[in-house]
Amino acid sequence: MGFVEDEVDEVSRLCCNVLPDSKLVTCMSTLIRVDIYQTESRQLTACLRFPVDYPRNKLLMEFKSKTMSLTFLERFTKICDEKALEFGGKPQVMKMLKFVDAYLRENPLCIVTEEIFNIKTLLAGTYGELKLRQKTSCVGLTAKGGSLYFKAKFHVPEQYPDQRIQWEDFDCNLPPPLFRFVDGQAKEIARQCVEPPLRQLKNNPVFTPKPSLERTLRFIVEAMKGFPHERCPVCNEHSLPQDSADVILSEEDDKYVIRMFCGHVYHQECLRKFMSEPPFPLGGKICPATKKHPRSDRRGGGKMKASGGTAGSELCQQRVTHDKWGLNDVKSAEAKWAHQQARIRELEEVIDFLQ
């Protein structure tokens, strides 16, 4: 037998034993095709062909996959081409199949190559960085907005994307209301990627899990980018100080920030003044922000036309609602304000009398 025939025979005898997660589909002198199935998401088909003047010339390789991105397959083909050059003049098929199998096992993050590329693009400039930890299948994210930051390690599970990414510990220098929002909303986004909604509408397609890494990290990065530019809708000053060392952590401070369900971030004193002074429209106060927030807690519902507003207005047009500040009873609000004004007048009369 010739050199090629010897290799074909070797592959037919050894492939499934050496690579237990593989299936030999075709084994001929014109084509060797092997399916490698390690996990639900780490599976591909390797197609190998013998070139003219083999083994002096390297194998011709092509990879296909229903679960792995085209971006990864293109890069992986180049990696394998470079590796095959090391075996010039020697048998290459089994060596390359072993290399392919080992590479997939040692680089579990290969299943999120395209998602990682998209997040790195989003971070370009001064917005942070990603660090990949292949041994633990973790992606370390540092997202920045000015001097503010959010750091966490995101674990990509074996059964990704059927299982969502996980993270427990994180570090950030945001004020408490904002880091609770970022962490909580990110976990909700990841959950929605893998869990069907409780109420499935008849016309909706059957739920299928979606990759959660890019969706979750994109939310965190975009939120951190936006925080330094947030302005209090009442005073129109920046909600947060430019220097993170000056961030207010005391809930008693007037400059302590409160994030409303519409997404806008108020200074506590500004919100208190806005909520306690007239007018008191029926149904409650309307957020005075001049634009709708891109990260509102409401999606498509709960909007009202602001007093004096017009259709198509850029105003926020959402009620000012919050666990602490959701005062929608007009009569109670008016009575409270009237009582405060009466107290002020009484104090002024006392001062005048004493003077």
Average pLDDT level: 86
H/E element sequence: HEEEEHHHEEEEHHEEHH
Low-confidence stretches: 300-312
Strand content: 15-25%
The global form is: elongated
Distance between the termini: 119 Å
Biggest sheet details: 4 strands, antiparallel
Number of helices: 8
Helical coverage, percent range: 25-40%
Spatial extent as radius of gyration: 30 Å
Lateral strand order in the biggest sheet: 1-2-3-4
Secondary-structure class: alpha+beta
Strand count: 10
What would you say this structure looks like, in words?
The protein is of the alpha+beta class and 355 residues long. 34% of the residues lie in helices and 15% in strands. It is elongated.
Structural topology:
Layout: H1 3-18, E1 22-27, E2 32-37, E3 43-49, E4 60-64, H2 70-84, H3 93-106, H4 113-122, E5 128-133, E6 138-145, E7 148-155, E8 170-172, H5 176-194, H6 213-226, E9 257-259, E10 265-267, H7 268-276, H8 330-354
Antiparallel strand pairs: 1-2, 2-3, 3-4, 5-6, 6-7, 7-8, 9-10
In short:
By secondary structure, the chain is α+β, with helices and mostly antiparallel strands. The chain has 8 helices and 10 strands. The longest helix has 25 residues, at 330-354.
Record keyword descriptors for this entry.
4-stranded antiparallel β-sheet; 8 helices; alpha+beta; 15% strand; 355 residues
